[in-house]
Amino acid sequence: MPLERLSTGVSELDRMLAGGIPRGFFVAVTGEPGTGKTILCIHFIAQGVKEGDRCIYVTTEESRDSIITQASQFGFDFSKAMEEKKLILVDALMGLEDPWSLRSLDVEELVNKVIEAKKALGYGRARLVVDSLSAFWLDKPAMARRYSYFVKKVLSKWDFTVLATSQYAITTSEAFGWGVEHIADGIIRFRRFVRGGVLKRYLLIEKMRQTPHSLHMHEIAILPGRGLVILRPVEMRKEDIALPRQVFEKVRRATEQKEVEVP
Ligand SMILES: Nc1ncnc2c1ncn2[C@@H]1O[C@H](COP(=O)(O)OP(=O)(O)O)[C@@H](O)[C@H]1O
Ligand SMILES: [Mg+2]
Questions:
Q1: Tens of pLDDT, residues 61-119
Q2: The CATH number of 5-261 is which of 3.40.50.300, 3.40.1170.10, 1.10.10.10, 3.30.365.10?
Q3: Any residues with CB less than 8 A from the CB of 262 and at least 6 apart, and which?
Q4: Cα distances (angstroms) measured from residue 60 to each of 91, 93, 130, 133, 155
Q5: Does residue 75's CB lie within 6 angstroms of at least one atom of ligand 1?
Q6: pTM of the predicted protein model
Q7: Which of 222, 223, 229 gets mutated to test ligand 1 (max ligand atoms within 8 A of its CB)?
Q8: Which of 51, 88, 137, 143 is the most exposed place for a label (fewest CB within 10 A)?
Q9: Who wins on pLDDT, 249 or 60?
């Protein structure tokens, strides 16, 4: 039986994915701040609303209103989708009185809230965005892998196809943002570079199980009224994209450390 694939909402990206993301997959969306992770998540949810999927968007980095406003700039009416009970926006910032607010950045609370939302939306194919999942272990980076595994395992029974964003942040002693990738069925990596004084953004599919996906890094753009568009594949030398040596060492040490702490 051919694999059922879900459109990401970005047609060129779907082509790079041989049709889309396989149903039920848990996909890590990684990259530095401002590279387009949230925008991709918005497309993915908007596409779900269009196709009649049950949609849940958990936002920890910005408010519910900010996501609604951002979506509206690309022509997606998330308020209407919420009124029509096609979408639930879970926010970690709204406070106690709101039923779809998380009281703390706790993975168990996250999972319970997502299941509650799925029950409220009803039976059927579902899409979930957690933006970001790495926010749930900000203060305990060594738990990244265990927590991501827990979230993946519990939610796998609920017919979700998941995008979980994760930021790379390197503090003085540790690197975190890793963890989601270790357990993910797919990894979509965003990057940014300054070329000739201009910020350029790129996207690379680093992994997608059961998929003959594109292996080319592509330059992307975020355009008013349209959102994320894939521009062209890029040719780059290794020196262009390698991490600075010091940073690389830091990441390597932190990863080794984690291997010791999390069996
Ligand atoms: N309406 C818009 N028109 C053009 N570009 C936009 C628009 N809204 C956001 N952007 C671009 O998207 C960037 C934010 O992308 P985002 O997906 O939120 O990043 P992150 O990877 O941190 O989630 C902004 O810095 C801006 O360059
Ligand atoms: Mg974001």
A1: 899 999 999 999 999 999 999 999 999 999 987 777 889 999 999 999 999 999 999 99
A2: 3.40.50.300
A3: 142, 143, 144, 145, 146
A4: 6, 7, 8, 8, 18
A5: no
A6: 0.89
A7: 222
A8: 51
A9: 60
